[in-house]
Amino acid sequence: MSHDEQAGIEKAQQPSSGLAVSIDDPVQNPGMPPHRTRMTDKDPKSAKAAERAIYGLFYLSVAGSIWAVAAYMLFPIEDMQYTSIRNNNMFIGLGIALSLLSIGVGAIHWSKTLMSDKEHVEERHPTQGTPETRAGAIEVFEKANEESGFGRRKMIRNSLFAALAASILPGVTLFRGLAPHDGNDPVALLKQTMWESGQHLVRDPHGTRIKASDVTIGSAFHVIPESLAGLSHHDGYLDEKAKAMVLMVRMRPDQITEREERKDWSYDGIVAYSKVCTHVGCPVALYEQHTHHLLCPCHQSQFDVSDEAKVVFGPAARPLPQLPITVDDEGYLVAKSDFTEPVGPSFWEIH
């Protein structure tokens, strides 16, 4: 090492000010900042006011949960009216938001005003599962209970339990909307749609009939039964459409794999399948011409239209139901029958 290099190192090691330390010295522990006593620690009235505010927030959470359940009943989404749907979503959402927000704010206010405010330093040590360690853990929980006042402050504890119990009620209540309300078997409801023998396939939503000669190879048509096109929204249009909507595509006949009993369910390479995904009922409407796959945009289930719409990817449990089709005397596409199996999701273990 040259003389100049040695001099440069010694100069770099020299402190540039009185505050600097040598690189060989350990990092100094700055210590704990000065403890600042809270108002609730000095004034019993402030502590009592904070306690009232905390259990008031927890009971406000209970009120929010109850309001969400009441809103579900006051603004039934089954009415299918725009105002009712909007109010249902808005008021249930406000109730749930108030419920969860009040629990969060109350818990934070509790920790900042009434729980122990002493600073603690815990030295690191090897973690061992000895009896002494387990006994120490129990002691920690007992001390935490003592310092937080969880066992001593009954109003806060009970109001928190009430808020947590009530917070699940809106979610449980909303599950009611997933079940039929007329006592009918859901499988039977999904097995019967407006498709029937001789029912014309028409474009959705215009209701124009479709000639087989107008369906080119590679094209896809969104289809509904002709009788559905004449229904109004007040006559159950949306309910019936949710079950009867169909996607129709055309391929070369030699590209289609069909069982013998389904040979007459298609017409000259034209096949029609339910658009209702067999996972949770989302509309399957994305068709990839080159692979002949239908994609559900909700959870990415994929169905192979060239092979009886079998599931090739994703969480769907069974193939899409196929609608048997043919043509009438004028060459218009018509259904040969309704679907031979229930449409839609497989919640009920449909086989």
From TrEMBL:
Chief subcellular location: membrane
Keywords: 2Fe-2S, Cell membrane, Disulfide bond, Electron transport, Iron, Iron-sulfur, Membrane, Metal-binding, Oxidoreductase, Respiratory chain, Transmembrane, Transmembrane helix, Transport
Transmembrane segments: 54-75, 90-110, 160-179
Compartments (UniProt record): Cell membrane
Ranges for region Disordered: 1-45
Keyword Iron among record annotations: yes
Cross-referenced PANTHER family: CYTOCHROME B-C1 COMPLEX SUBUNIT RIESKE, MITOCHONDRIAL (PTHR10134)
Name used for this protein in its record: Cytochrome bc1 complex Rieske iron-sulfur subunit
Species, as recorded: Microbacterium amylolyticum
